[in-house]
Every structure is written in C-alpha cells, then in structure tokens.
C-alpha cells in the first residue's frame, strides 16, 4: 500500500513539474521563435526564389524547394535539442536546483524528463508547421510513406535530444552550454543540408554526411517523402547515434 501511495505522489509531483516547466517554456519568446517560427520563415524565404520553384534535371525532376522541406523539418529539432535545451538544464544545475530537488519527493530526473518532453514536443510542432507551409504555400507533396517518415522523424528527434543531453552533461555553466550549443549547431545544420541539400552535394561529400545523424535523417525523410521506405542504413545510423549519445550523456551527467 505504501508503495502505491509513494508512486502516486511521485507521479503527481512529476506532472506538476511538467506543467510548471511548460509555463516557463511558454515565457521564452526567443526559444519559441527559433524552434517554431524560424524554420517555416526560412522555408517561405527560399520558396520566394524563382529558380527554387523550377524542376531541375540534376535533382531527378524535383524542385530545390522540395528538398528544403525535410531540411526545415530537421532545423526545428536541431535548434530545440542543441541550442534551446542545454542552457536551461545546465542553468538549473548551476543554481543548485537539481541538488535541492534530490531531497524532495520530486527527483531531478523529473525535471530533465520534462525539458526533453517539452523541447521534443516543440520540435514536432515545428515539423507540422514546415509540412503545412510546404504543402499549402509551395505545393510540396506530403510524405507518401507515412510510417517510414514517422519512424525517421522520431529517431531524428531522439538523436537531437540525446545530443542536447550530452551537451548539458559536459557543460559546467549555462554560458558554456550556450557557447557549446552554438559551436555544434552550425556543423549539424550543414550536415542536415541547410546550406546545400544532401541530395545536391557531391557524391563523396554526401557519403560522408550520411554517416552523421542529421545527414542520415535528411536522407531518410526524403526517401519517405518520395514514397520509399527509408534505407535501413540511414535508420541504423540514426539508431546508433541515439544509443551512443544517450549512453555518453548518462555516463557524464551530474546533478550538481
């Protein structure tokens, strides 16, 4: 009986933490802009370029804007996991909040879980916005292999959050977390295809990028959009990176 009561209290406390963190997250207009608005804004700007709306023989008849929808889908989760989440978690640890929580019924892991849930949910909302703008504004077809797309999407969110958790683990202060996130952000954006879609990269560069988490994710999402099941090699790369990054984050994360 006491075990049931303890579990109920813990669940109630965890729910309260999630609600509190959700309210605080909603008061961060900067994070909300970069996660939710910026990817779709970028898609709108790129779609305004006339040449991006024309079919290209070098892209197998696709338009450049067609390739950028998966890129902007990834951009929201990259920003959420790498740039937005680590400073928040590291700030809590730096101010001793995680240490103080360890003496209460609410475990520090509840706060970390709440942050991952909130940033993961924001990333998925960003995905829906990018798909909607791509379809309604630029007539980009929706993914034809829905199950494969969802699987690749969930793995991409998982790897973004795992990378963010690792940055939180390795950063001793909030300022370091912000700087580290910025340093990692731009290479990840490049591999996702922000400056040049993976399909348009030279073969050698594309093969290198495909072994990175977001390069593999970009390819998997593009394949599912075209109606094909994502290559198992790309899904395997995403799974491997998620496992490795999660293991490293668990190994090095400290609550104080």
Automatic annotation (TrEMBL):
Domain of life (superkingdom):
Bacteria
Any matching Pfam family: ABC2_membrane
Residue ranges annotated for the ABC transmembrane type-2 domain, each copy included: 30-256
Q: Does the keyword Cell membrane apply?
A: yes
Sequence intervals crossing the membrane: 32-52, 67-89, 110-134, 146-169, 176-196, 231-253
Q: Which PANTHER family match?
A: DOXORUBICIN RESISTANCE ABC TRANSPORTER PERMEASE PROTEIN DRRC-RELATED (PTHR43027), TRANSPORT PERMEASE PROTEIN (PTHR43027:SF2)
Q: What is this protein called?
A: Transport permease protein
**Record organism:** Streptomyces poonensis
């Amino acid at each position: 009986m006491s075990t049931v009561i303890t579990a109920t209290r813990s669940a109630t406390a965890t729910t309260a933490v999630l609600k509190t963190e959700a309210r605080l997250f909603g008061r961060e207009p900067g994070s909300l802009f970069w996660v939710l608005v910026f990817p779709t804004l970028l898609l709108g700007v790129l779609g305004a370029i006339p040449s991006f709306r024309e079919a290209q023989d070098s892209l197998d008849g696709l338009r450049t804007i067609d390739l950028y929808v998966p890129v902007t889908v990834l951009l929201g989760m990259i920003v959420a996991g790498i740039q937005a989440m680590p400073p928040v978690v590291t700030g809590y640890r730096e101010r001793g909040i995680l240490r103080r929580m360890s003496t209460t019924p609410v475990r520090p892991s509840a706060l970390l879980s709440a942050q991952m849930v909130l940033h993961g949910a924001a990333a998925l909302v960003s995905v829906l916005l990018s798909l909607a703008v791509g379809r309604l504004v630029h007539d980009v077809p929706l993914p034809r292999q829905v199950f494969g797309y969802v699987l690749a999407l969930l793995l991409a969110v998982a790897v973004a959050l795992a990378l963010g958790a690792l940055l939180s683990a390795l950063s001793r202060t909030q300022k370091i977390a912000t700087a580290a996130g910025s340093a990692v952000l731009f290479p990840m954006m490049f591999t996702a295809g922000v400056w040049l879609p993976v399909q348009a990269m030279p073969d050698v560069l594309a093969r290198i990028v495909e072994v990175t988490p977001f390069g593999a994710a970009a390819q998997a999402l593009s394949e599912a959009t075209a109606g094909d099941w994502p290559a198992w090699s790309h899904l395997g790369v995403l799974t491997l990176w998620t496992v490795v990054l999660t293991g490293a984050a668990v190994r090095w994360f400290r609550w104080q």
